Task: structure prediction
Amino acid sequence: MGIKHLKENEKLLFRQTIQAPGTINQEDLRNLYIQRPNRKILGTPVTPLVSIYYFGERRYHQEKYIRRKEAVEKKYDDKIASTTSQRKINNYQFKKLKKVDKLNGFIENGNVWMQWGEPISVFDSAKAAMTRERFQEYLFGKGYFKNKVTEHVGNTGKLVTVNYKIDPGQPYFVDSIFYDVADTAVLHIVNDNVRNSFIVKNTRYDQDNFTKERERLDLLMKDYGYYDFNRQYIDFDIDTTFRTPERKIAVVISIKDPAKRGYHKKFNIDQVTFTTDVGVNAPDQQRQTRSYRDIQYKYYKNQYNLKILSQRVFLQPGEDYSRTKTLRTQQQLGNVEAFKFVNINYDTAGGKFIANIFASPLSRYEWTNEAGVSVTQGFPGPFYNISFKKRNVFHGMETFDLNGRFGFEGVASATSSENVYKSTEAGLNASLTFPQFIWPFKERQRYKFAQYNPKTKFTAGYAYTDRPEYRRTVISVNGTYTWQSANRKRLYSLIPLNLGVIDTANLSQSFRELLLKQHDLGNNALTNSFRPSFVNSIIFGITWNLNNYGNKERDSWYIRTQLESGGTIWNFINPKFITDLKLEYFKYIRMSIDVRKTDPLNKNTVLAYRLNSGFAYSYSDNESLPYEKFFFAGGSNSLRAWRPRRLGPGSAKPPESKNPKGDGLYDYSIEKPSEILMEASIELRQKLFGFVNGAIFIDAGNVWNFRPSNVVDAEGNITQDRSSQFSIDRFYKEIGVGTGFGLRFDFTFLILRFDVGMKVYDPARDQGDRFVLDKIRFWKPYAKEAADGTFYGYREPVIYNVGIGFPF
Result:
C-alpha cells in the first residue's frame, strides 16, 4: 500500500465512503472528491502505481532533461539559422516544437515511470473540508437547500478512512412557472413548445435543468429564424419564499429584448450560394455561376450533378433561418464522401441575409496500401491490402471501390487438435455506391429522403480460402440500401439482392472421412454445406448506437439485430435449373441480435456487458444451412475458455482424446456448427498504468440444434442423440461458463488484447463432474499418474486468446 513512502507525521488516505439516502446519486458525489486514495488493482488492496511512481522517482534527474531541452533548442536554432529555405525552416520548427513539448512534459511531470504511476495519497484535512463544501453545493443545486454534510475521519495506524454522512433534508419543488416575455412572437413560440421544457411543475428543483432549459430555448429560437438570438437574453428568477412552509418554488422565466434594437429580429434567407471547389487553384479563370432550385452554385469546373447535390441542401431562399437545417445540410454534404470539409456561414452585410456554403473537394482518385497482422478467432497472421477508389464516377458523387486482400492466418484445424495450421485468405471486391436510393421514386420523394442519408451500394466479390481441410471459393453479388434515422442513432440496412456461388474442393482425407461419416449417420447438414451450392437471401438489419458506444464518460449501448430469409424465391419458382447445375440450394430463416453496454464506474474503470443470440432454421428438403450461416461458440470474441468454434452443441460429448495415457480430456478437433446461439459476457476493465489496461471476465453460453443428431452406439446401431437438441426444460443446465483475466495494450491506433480463459462449468461432462475450475492447469495438462503407472483424473487446459480490439 506504499506506507513506507510516508514521511513523519503523514498518514495515508486509504478509503473514502459516503453514507447517504438512496435518493442521492453517490456516483455524482464521488466525482467531486478533492483528494482520492491511490488506485487499487481490480478492487484488491494492491496499489502498483505507487511502486511504479517511486521506482521512477529514484531514477529521475530533472537537470538531465533541462540540459537535453537546451541542447535540442540550440540544435534546431542552428539549423534554422543555416538555411534560407522556408520549407526547411517550417520543418525544423515543427520538429523542435514536438521534441521540446515532450521534454517539457518530463521536466514538469517526471519521467515515464512517474507519469504512469502516482505518488502516495497523503491525507489532508483541508481537502476533506473542501470536499464537504462541494457536496453541500451539489445538494443545494439538486433542491436540498437545507442539507447537512459531516465528515468523520477514522485512523488505524497510518491509515485514514474518511466517511461523509449526508443529511439532505427535505427537497424543494417547482410549484409555479411564469413567463416574462415582452415580445409576443417569441412568447407564442415558447408556449407552443412548452411540452419540451426541462422545468416542469411538481418536480424537484434541479439546477442542471435550468442550464438545459436555457440551452433549449436558445436553440429553439434559432430554429425559428432568430439568427442572432443569444443565451444572455434568458434569465431565471427563483422565489423560495413562495408558500415556504410547503417547500414550494416559483420560477419566472424571462426573455429580454436586445437593448439597441429593442426587439428580436427574425431573419429570412434572401440567397443561398454554394461554392463547390474551395481551395482549388485555377489561375486566370473565373468561377462560373449556375442557379438550380434557387441555389447559386459557383465553380471553376462543372463536375457535380446539381440535381443530386441539391438533394442534400435543406436551405432555401424565402425560408426562415434554421440552425437545425444548417447543421443537417453540413452533415449530409459531409456524408457523401465527396468533400474534405463543408462550412456554412451567413452574411448579413448590405441589408441582406445570405447563406454561404463552402466545400473543398476530395481528390478524385485514391490508392491505399496496408500491411499488418490480423487476429480473428485464431492466431496472428500477416496480411496485405491494396485498394483503389474513384470518386464522382458519373458526376453524381458516386464512389467506386476496388479492394484486394491476401494474407495468412493461424487457425485451429477442423479435424485435428493440433495448435496452429496455416490458412490462406485472398479476395477481390468491387463496389459502386450511389448517394441516393436507386429506385423509381418521384423527385419530390428523393428530396424528402435525403435527410436520412440514403445510399445504394452494389458489390461483386471473389473470396478464396485454403485451409488444411479444404479449399473454398465464393463468388458473390449483392445490392444494399442503407439509411439513418433523423437523429442518426439508428442505421437501417436492406439487402434485397444477395447471391453467392460456393465451391469446395481439395478436401483432405480426414475431412472427407468426417463428412462421409456424418452422411452415413444421416446428419446431412454438415455434408450439404460443403457441396457446390447456390445461396440467395434477403437481409434486413437495424443498428442502434446510443450515446456513442464505448465512450468513457457515460453509459452507452450498441444493439444490432438482423433478419435473413434465405432461398425465399424458391417458394415461388421451381429451382430445377439450379439442381440441373448440380448445385445445392437452401431455404432458411435466420435471426440474430447483439446487445452491448458499457457502464463507466469512474474515469479508470468500465463495466461492459454483452448478450448475443440468434437462430437459423432450415426448411428446405436437405434440412441444411450454408456453412457460413451456422452459429458457433468459443473463441477470443465468444466464450474464451473454449477453443474457437468448439463449444457445444448442448451437452453433446466430444470424443475423448486419443492420448495413450488416457488423460480424460476431450478431443475438440471438430468445429461445432449449430442452429441456435445464446451467449452473454460481463467484463470489468481497469486502467493499470500507461497504455496497459487489465480485465477480468465471465462468459456464459452455448449452441444447440433444432433437430436431434444421429450417433452410432456400442453395437454399431444408429440412434438419435438429443443432447445436442434445444429443449426448454434443460437448456439452462447446458450453459457453459468460463472466466479469466487479460491485458489490453492501448497503442492509440490499435488495442492488442491478451486473454486467459478458464472453464468453470463444462456441459459436455457427466452430471456431477461439470464444475471443472479446480481441475485447471496452466501448463501441459495431463492426468495424474499412480504408483503402478496407470493414469486417472484429468486436468483442463487453460486457453490463451490473442485479439485486436475489445471482445465487445
Observations:
- The chain has a mean pLDDT of 88.
- The longest strand covers residues 490-505.
- Residues 341 and 360 are 6 Å apart (CA to CA).
